[in-house]
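User: Can you predict the 3D structure for this chain?
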Amino acid sequence: MTHTNHIVEQDAHHVMPTYGRFPLAAECGKGAVLTDVDGKSYIDFTSGIGVNALGYCDEGWVKAVTEQLTKVQHISNYYYSPVTTELADRLIELSGMKKVFFGNSGAEANEAAIKIARKYSFDKYGEGRSTIITFNSSFHGRTVTTLAATAQDSFHNFFFPFTEGFKYAELNDAEGLLEALTPDVCAIFVEPIQGEGGVNIMTGEFALLLKKICEEKDILLLFDEVQTGIGRTGRLYAFEHFGFCPDVVTSAKGLGGGLPIGAVLCGEKTMNVLTAGTHGTTFGGNPVVAAGALEVLKRVADRDFLSSVGEKGRYITEKILKMELPNVVQVRGRGLMIGIQVTESPKDLCKKCLEAGLLTLTAGKDVLRLLPPLTISYEEIDQGLAILEQVMKG
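Assistant: Here is the predicted structure, written as structure tokens:
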């Protein structure tokens, strides 16, 4: 029995079966290369679903986290953490937003954004104005409330009753959005690129329409940038592609570089909505996680670094198109967030890629998704794409 098989069996005995896992047990990694417990290496085009922004075991990130561990590993939020305050300063400076709340995950960040939207409206207009519009194929998390916000029927089962107050429209459909804008709407919640839903990209025209409607009706515009944030699309946040700041931006995944973090960035309208006692968390803004996040921002926010993300994304897309792979309908994305729409099962492709030494993801029903580390080298890209071509051409 291999080490992997032993771990798979052990996991089956003691861990709840909430994940459709692939048979890989990680041992160590460096850059964009992961090695399993049996010594097999893989090119990683997933980065932990967009989390390991700097790849595996980046020296600067490891040093920052380790140094903080020797100082203070945790402190109650009844007191101040200098490194967390520094992270807040840096995030606000870089994003153009006004204030931040720290949590532990993307779902938590999205829960907080929903609370902010509803409290903003309640404070100003009273009851009866609490509905939030989200978009078909969206994904906002797995809590009961963020499942309700997620506009996919497959998620609306088992856990009844779901939180009320959400309605759904079609991304990039102006007419459908206008029909959904009833007087009880307090916010519109949108992913600039729907990651889990299929790497579906919001157009610039639709983004500007959202901005115009929200300003005219005093509706809050919330951007879910859990997956698109922290350099993933070639800008620090994807909203920068549209030339304006939303009222609220949620962030997670890549911000921690591998440690759990969530952040809710608020603009002028929303920066003082949450007050003492209206929200909180035990571990939010943890100093060790904050130290790692500061190192991520130090590297990722550099203009040349962000340009390189865009260049690598174009390189991957162009190379895939030149391969003339069978069963490929379309390649779409922005920066290092790439979706390959296929006519065969993307899950089967993931399995075949894994066996051949490449880690990939699925999205929606028919998309193979690539989220490589932002630091991936061109040599690693070429190695991964060679495996992808080999698998898809059979």
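The radius of gyration is 21 Å. The chain is about 40% helix and 20% strand.
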